[in-house]
Amino acid sequence: MYDVEKVRADFPILSREVNGKPLVYLDNGASAQKPRVVIDAMTHAYEHEYANVHRGLHYLSNLATDKYEAVRGIVARFLHAPDPEEIVFTTGTTEGINLVSYAWAAPRMQAGDEIVLSVLEHHANIVPWHFLRERQGVVLKWVEPELDGSLDPQKVLDAIGPKTKLVAVTQMSNVTGTLVDVAAICRGAKEKGVPVLVDGSQGAVHRPVSIPEIGCDFYAITGHKLYGPSGSGAIWIAKERMKEMRPFLGGGDMIRDVYRDTVTYNDPPMKFEAGTPGIVQQIGMGVALEYLMGLGMENIASHEAKLAAYATTRFKGLNWLNIQGDAPGKGAIFSMTLEGAAHAHDISTVLDKKGVAVRAGTHCAMPLLDFFGATATCRASFGLYNTKAEVDKLIEALELCHELFA
Questions:
Q1: Neighbour-count burial of 320, counting CB atoms closer than 10 A to its CB (0-12 exposed, 13-18 middle, 19+ buried)
Q2: Which part of the chain has CATH 3.90.1150.10?
């Protein structure tokens, strides 16, 4: 039995007030709040266990190294990945995708080669490929979603041509909550010999993930959306792809030997991790993933599905509210605009006065907003600790907006 009130008690910040109102935090799509167990683990690490990793033989260095390296196994379990050595630590999904762009794609692509993208993508899964377009003449092929925000896997597969070298696609839209059938895309792409990168920033937060079932070549996650600290993240990379990658960053840990006239690189995953890492941040992410697995990702998905269904029903009663993307099976992420002159920033400001925290703007997804004909939207994104009562508070605040701006 999923006890949301018990879950909420694990998050200290949820007991505070904002503008004299109980906090209703609905900006989880941008960054989630942290449970006490993560906060305590990071504090403990700094107070009692901190030292640099991999480089010392003293007690604290060995302890910190053990705690830090154990997180690879935790990430592998969370993703049902076959081998912890396929996990590369990053500062988040953005770095993970840039790693693939620089270390795998750039040396393998030339002018005229193609990368297939969907219009649903976050800028983190667009801009690194634009670098290759600008610098190497790589062609970006765009696949548009349906009007309800859904993405037909066959349309993605149909976009693959003889010059396609990569498909890069999100598992869940951060704007609409659209869930993409990435497994179907990976199966079809594999038949055509084309690797697939999956942006799991949102998908891994809201659904159980199994790398073998998805069948991708790269899968990136970010810690701060997974109820862990900012500056933490990881990317799973298939071993055969790792062998094809050159180093991205140069420095300590990613080398074996350095001389005046030569350098020998370390084995993966260390080959792609240069310099002193975010030691405590990664430890915190590991604790956060253990917390999620303790709750059960299936239980979290079920809870959020009920929230999404309830919110959808309530939204339908507001005939002056426009929801961008209402695809079946979508996650509990809703982007909206009000009919009339109210700007998303105005809506967000009014909601904040009621203690309701939402996001306003383009959500780092300008091609998708352009597809919907919007310059900005107001986004309410729900998480594992949100409740139906908070949906009601959101509705009340939106009704006040309508009264003010109608």
A1: middle
A2: 4-30+297-405
Residue with tokens 């405590």: 280
Residue showing tokens 């303790």: 294
CA distance 41 to 280: 9
CATH code of the region 39-294: 3.40.640.10
Catalytic residues: 364
Percent of the chain at pLDDT exceeding 70: 100
- Would you mind telling me the total number of residues written for the chain in this entry? 406
User: What distance in Å separates the CA atoms of residue 54 and residue 253, rounded to the nearest whole number?
Assistant: 8
346, burial (CB in 10 Å: exposed 0-12, middle 13-18, buried 19+) = middle
Residue 10 to residue 56: CA distance in whole angstroms? 35
- pTM, 2 dp: 0.97
SS (H, E, C) 119-149: CCCCHHHCHHHHHHHHHHCCEEEEECCCCCC
Predicted confidence (pLDDT) at residue 81 exceeds the cutoff of 90: yes
**Rounded distance between C-alpha atoms, residue 336 and residue 330, angstroms:** 15
Helix (H) / strand (E) containing 6: helix 4-8
Q: Whose CA is closest to 208, among 293, 121, 149? A: 293
Q: What is the pLDDT of residues 138-150, one digit of tens each?
A: 999 999 999 999 9
Q: Options 3.90.1150.10, 3.40.630.10, 2.40.37.10, 3.40.50.2300; which CATH number does 4-30+297-405 get?
A: 3.90.1150.10
Phi, psi of 357 (to 5 degrees): -95, 115
The span from the CA of 366 to the CA of 308, in Å, is 24
pLDDT tens digits, 88-130: 999 999 999 999 999 999 999 999 999 999 999 999 999 999 9
Which two tokens mark 217? 């070549």
Q: What is the DSSP letter of 11?
A: -
Q: Is the dihedral of CA 200, 362, 24, 397 positive or negative?
A: negative
